[in-house]
UniProtKB/TrEMBL annotation, chains A, B, C, D:
Domain (HTH cro/C1-type) ranges: 39-67
Domain named HTH tetR-type: residues: 28-86
The name this protein goes by in its record: Putative Bacterial regulatory protein, tetR family
DNA-binding region: 49-68
Record keywords: DNA-binding, Transcription, Transcription regulation
InterPro entries: Cro/C1-type_HTH, Homeodomain-like_sf, HTH-type_TetR-like_transc_reg, HTH_TetR, Tet_transcr_reg_TetR-rel_C_sf, TetR_C
Biased composition regions of type Low complexity, renumbered to the chain: 10-20, 211-220
Domain of life of the native organism: Bacteria
Length: 234, 234, 234, 234
DNA sequence: GAATAAACGAGACGGTACGTCTCGTCTTATG
DNA sequence: CATAAGACGAGACGTACCGTCTCGTTTATTC
């Protein structure tokens, strides 16, 4: 992610075995310090500047520039270290159940204040193609892949309608959550994730007259959603 | 919209009849020039600065600051003048039809390149409560109100299920579109708006065994949507 | 002084008799208001701006520009109205006496805090030839003329050495006072004026051996000047 | 002079020996460039602005602000570098001779057009106590000290009258010169300096009847000074 | 009494400089 | 060779005055 030839993350790479490279070795604690400082600043809703990251982390500005191309990249990396380790999906169960589990795993981080970060990162990533690419690779791809798998599986199982476009579904799931992040409408409670799933499963249409006595089905979920009006929407 | 006490826009207010105000009258061509320059810059994806707006529009910097508190406010106003005059909804027809009409009226602007603007505006509005308020008042409110009306009407008409939360629905409609704007995934074609509506109306579930002939309804919707995979999603 | 075609000050000019000019007559209270406000600001050591004069005096900016070419001109005029009415010289008496009287009359204003004003005015007048000319006409000329008269008279009377250049003398009298004004070393006490005169009259040289017993003469003045060291000089 | 904690000018301080300070060293050519540009602008009688200094010298504005608190400080430093290296006094000789030498050394710079600079610097220093302090320390103090020494020496030698206040004398010597600078009455020719000394030594009074042959002394002084009237005085 | 004309206030505007901030680069000394 | 310290140019920020201009209003003279 950092534009670093030598890779760092886990990085028990070959190189580290063969040759302790010449010169002073990179101080890995710097990466941690920078990312931590960045998260703190983002949480404080302070406007992020390399300047600030530098002075808070104690890492000099030129050093930061050596390892990251711009502040957006730093922010994204900082966010990812926080978020991705939660993405653990336990497949199994009905569509309903499994979709909920997916939402919780994929967007559960939105329960926390930090999550606003992502919206600002994405927004500024528009100007930095490389950062955008990181975002796709590390955030989008894994989630979209899992969703695609889920859709395929449940379609085969006959639980989902035929012909559902996983990409479209992805946008209908992630879109509302992202909207709240972008609008500062955080934290996003778990119930919201569930409501989205519920509405999507059932659809908006009134049950056809075919089975007037059968609002049953998976209808339960549609239990009168308290008309939340606390906030204005987004 | 501009932080202007004395009204400018349409403003055939009483005051304008009774008293042509004292002092040199405001040169209204400036407002236009500023907004036009702003749109141009935003379209060019150039990073927006008051400096740039000033030199491009030929309006001096102090004058811009006289009428707008910050660049985000300028950008929002510029966007609104472009967008809001399209919001004409002709109610009538079935849910399906009416929801589509709503989408086209409310988000049709997303067909154009300009639309990315909005995402950047919203993103930076997070730091400017007053601009955020303008955004709510001029973009969100009218659209949400119309949607709420639509929902109420169609619920009474028995076309929509009982208990649908208009706010949640709003987020499911606007969320996906906004997501594409924010990701630079523009223009958003009209078909996308329709697909969202279709999916939401019908829901994801496979038709219950109760009535094999049932899913007719507005029929078309379930038509195998070609699994668009051109783009990666957002 | 003001760049006013029609003159105002005393101005019982022919024109004022023959024709009260057409149109609304100038409101003379404005001049007073402007000058008073200017003096106040100068006394407060605030940095003088037309803006400030305008808002303090309640006279609009364009009106001030109608009557004065720049702020330096306003300041000079304000100062002169304060200062010149003191210049009343009563000739007569010995050189010593008369020179002292001259100093008191010409530079007595330096006893007051306001006097610093003059230094700043002169300094900025360097860039405004017209203001400099006013300064010469209204401040310098009358004082220099009187001094020249004094020198001529006392030279004829045999009290002053032959061949004293009045211009040089003027600079030796006004220079030290001006220096204190310019350095903010105000107020300039009357004793200072006297000391200057004394030193100049007697000169620095020790009395020639010709009359070892006669430090008398006009020596009295040289009475042990208490070695003031309170301030640093200028 | 610059508000620089770390010493630059001569400063062969201990620190400079032991430790060449960390970080990129200050580019001393910038200081020179700034001061040179400043002198040029002052000579051209252009109104001095940091903006102008910056663009003329090629040094960026922030850098200038890093090293000087305001433009007055820059101007003073620029002037001092030009002026102070001339202050070399060779004591010895009679009062007359020595006083003249003092004048030439201390105020000789006034022969050049540049000298007007000083007046404008002092004028604006009134608003900047720190600059005023620099002025005292670097211009006033050394000159006043030498004058005080001169007075003491010559008083002991019996050439000067007892009880002459060096501060008062300072004002009588520097005042007339400063007056000419402030009035734009430059260059100040060497003869002017001499005339001031002459007048001060001898005094104004006609020689007492005691010793008709007396006023010999340094004789010259009383030589009929051509009544210069070319300029108006100041 | 109506027309005329100047004086004036209110306010908009382009312009210039201010002093500050952050960016990203570069240069040196140190580890 | 990695790093810290720090100097630097570039450029935008938001503000303060400048001096000018355009109006509408007021107050006097003149026809």
């Amino acid at each position: 992610m950092a534009h670093d030839p030598g890779s760092i993350p886990g990085s028990a790479t070959a190189s580290s075995v063969t040759a302790a490279r010449r010169g002073r070795p990179r101080d890995t604690s710097l990466r941690t310090a920078v990312l931590r400082a960045t998260l703190e600043l983002l949480r404080e809703r302070a406007s992020l500047s390399i300047e600030a990251i530098s002075s808070r982390s104690g890492v000099s500005r030129p050093t930061i520039y050596r390892w990251w191309p711009n502040k957006t990249a730093v922010a994204l990396e900082a966010f990812m270290t926080e978020v991705n380790h939660r993405l653990v999906l336990a497949p199994g169960g009905g569509v309903d159940e499994e979709l909920r589990a997916f939402m919780h795993g994929a967007f559960g981080f939105a329960q926390e204040q930090d999550s606003v970060i992502l919206a600002s990162v994405i927004a500024s990533a528009t100007e930095h193609p490389d950062v955008m690419e990181s975002y796709r690779a590390e955030f989008l791809r894994p989630r979209q892949d899992r969703l695609a798998g889920l859709v395929a599986r449940q379609t085969r199982a006959g639980e989902l309608r035929q012909g559902i476009d996983p990409t479209l579904l992805w946008q209908l799931l992630w879109g509302p959550v992202y909207l709240r992040l972008a609008s500062g409408d955080v934290p996003v409670p778990t119930e919201f994730l569930d409501q989205v799933v519920t509405l999507l499963l059932t659809g908006l249409l009134a049950p056809p007259r075919c089975a007037p006595a059968a609002p049953a089905g998976p209808a339960g979920p549609a239990a009168p959603p308290e008309p939340r009006a606390e906030r204005e929407g987004s």
